[in-house]
Amino acid sequence: MAKIAFFKRYNSLMLCVVAAIVSVSGNALSAENNAVVFEAQIELESIYSKVSTDVYRRQQEFQAEVAAGYAINNTVSLFGQVEWNRQKETVSGEVETSIGMERKQHWMQYQWHPKDASTHALRIGRNKFKEKREWWWKSELDAITYDVTYPGARFRLGFGKELAPETTFDTKIYPEEQDIYRLFGEHKLHLSNDSSLEVFGLLHKDNSTQYRPGDRMHSSTEDDSDADLLWLGFRYSTAQLFNANNFSLRMDVAFVKGDEVRYQFSDESAYLTVSEKAKYNVEAWAYDVELQWRVTTGSPVSLMLGLAQGSGTKNSHLTRTDSNFRQTGLHENDENYPYYGELLDPDLSNLIIATIGFKWALPGESQFYLIYHHYNQHYLSNELSSDAIKQDPNGISKEIGQSLEVIFLLEPMTQITMEMVVAAFRLGDAYNNKHEAIATYAAVTFGYEF
Fold first, then answer.
1. For 204-246, how does the pLDDT look when each residue is reduced to its tens digit (9 = 90+)?
2. C-alpha neighbours within 13 Å on the C-beta side of residue 55
3. How far is it, in rounded angstroms, from Cα 386 to Cα 384?
4. 3-state SS assignment for residue 384
5. Burial class (CB in 10 A: 0-12, 13-18, 19+), 358
6. For residue 245, how many other CB atoms are within 10 A of its CB?
7. Helices (H) and strands (E) in the chain, counts
8. CA 434 to CA 397: how far, in whole Å?
9. DSSP letter assigned to residue 327
10. pLDDT tens readout for residues 37-50
């Protein structure tokens, strides 16, 4: 029987996930001069998953986050944020507990207002980068950023490199983040009251030491890829397609080009030896289009149709050209919920995802979704850009599978939020034992802020 892993790491069939989130928040961190403003949040989470009597997973996690902001004057401000985390995890009888701190945002900002009604801000430190759909990025990086906001538009330019480990769990920067330089920018232009155009760009430069065949290293420093890549793309959104109030459209397009060096390793206990080194030319593309139709103008009920594709390649080992699209590595693919599926939650690489959904906007900020996904590969491959399924595709069929999800986002009061998810996923012909692999998933999240 295929082993299904949820939360991207474990071979398990989800029976029940219950998460409780309690938030404690002070005033918004926009203090007056010489005033310190604090914000705090705690999170409690409990997870249980099971595929058989002897294959199961339990996890209990507690997080406490504290933030403080200080305005020195009208132009200079400081901000700091830190998180304490305790996690206990049991996987098929093996228990692992971790306790430590994680550094979040901490920066100094200089802000000024020229006479042209714009606002400029220069920020130095660990910044949070997030765009609405998190298709390009949602991450925290050590960086310098320059932001400009003016009527009808917004611009951001940043340059970053990780300078220290993220948590006290790790004594070193993650090998895949070591000596990575990033130059990125985004520009949003409001074309009208109902439409906008956003342009994105990211230059990724890997300056880490390149290995040679025969080199030996500890497994904790393994980095199987060195890449110099450039992403360019745009997003167009309109709430009135064809001047019709009940049709809206959102379209994302991205291209990536560059070079990548990949390594193969042979295992030698705690040490690895580089057995192979190969260089590839990367040229790839992706798109994501969603159309929403409201049953009647102003109706809370909408039908959603979506199609997303990340390019794939075949015989890259022969041509040394890799056309498998890869996302930026800073992304989350989450807008209210993981829009490529709660269960599979893949990266958009060598994959075609067709989606049809039903959305019902309830009073306040509450929403109800019924969503169906169908997953196919672009080209036949025995790899999948998701580690939710531990079994590899067979390379004979392109059909990965299909999922059906019910998502209920409830906000009965300003201080209370609740999320409930029930989903099922069935493996397709790309898996030899698909008839045995129907996975189910359930999750409940509760939040309270005061």
1. 999 988 888 888 888 888 888 999 999 999 999 998 887 777 8
2. 12
3. 5
4. coil
5. middle
6. 13
7. 1, 23
8. 12
9. -
10. 887 777 676 666 55
How crowded is residue 57: how many other Cβ atoms within 10 Å of its Cβ?
A: 22
C-alpha span between 202 and 101 (Å, rounded): 29
Q: Length of the chain, please?
A: 450
Q: Is the Cβ–Cβ distance between 362 and 344 less than 8 Å?
A: no
What does the block give as tokens for 386?
A: 């998701």
- How far is the C-alpha of 444 from the C-alpha of 421, rounded, in Å? 6
DSSP for 386-437, written as a single string? -SSB-SPP-SS--EEEEEEEEEEEEEEETTEEEEEEEEEEEE-TTSTTGGG-
**Is there a contact between 226 and 282 (Cβ–Cβ < 8 Å)?**
no
369 touches 359 (CB < 8 A): yes
Rounded to whole angstroms, the Cα distance separating 320 from 149 reads 43
Cα–Cα distance, 279 to 260 (Å, whole number):
6
Give the per-residue pLDDT at 21: 28
Confidence label for 28 from pLDDT (cuts 50, 70 and 90)? very low
Beta-bridged to residue 184, according to DSSP, are 158, 202
Is residue 137 a contact partner of residue 127, using CB atoms and an 8 Å limit?
no
Residue type (1 letter), 403: S
Helix (H) or strand (E) holding 225: strand 225-238
Is the model's pLDDT at 356 over the cut of 60?
yes
Quote the mean pLDDT of the chain. Answer: 83
Which helix (H) or strand (E) element contains residue 367?
strand 367-377
Q: What is the pLDDT of residue 18?
A: 28
Cα(162)–Cα(127) distance, integer angstroms: 11
Spatial distance between the Cα atoms of 140 and 127, rounded to a whole number of angstroms: 5
Q: Tell me, letter by letter, the H, E, C secondary structure of 104-157.
A: EEEEEEEEECCCCCCEEEEEEEEEEEECCCCCCCEEEEEEEEEEEEECCEEEEE
